[in-house]
Amino acid sequence: MEVTDLEEAAAGIGWYHSIDLGHGVVTRGLSQNRIAAEALPDFAGRSVLDIGAWDGLYSFLAERQGASRVVALDHYVWCLDFHARQQYWEECERQGILPDHDRDERDFWQPETMPGRRAFDFAHKVLDSSVEPVVGDLMTIDLEALGSFDVVLYLGVLYHMREPLTALRRLRRVTTEVAVIETEAIEVPGHEDEALCAFYPGGELNRDYGNWYALSEGALAGMCRAAGFRRVETKVGPPLLPPPPAPPIWRSSRQDRENYERVMRDRQATQRYRIVVHAFP
Ligand SMILES: C[S@@+](CC[C@H](N)C(=O)[O-])C[C@H]1O[C@@H](n2cnc3c(N)ncnc32)[C@H](O)[C@@H]1O
Question: Is the pTM of this model over 0.85?
Answer without folding.
Answer: yes
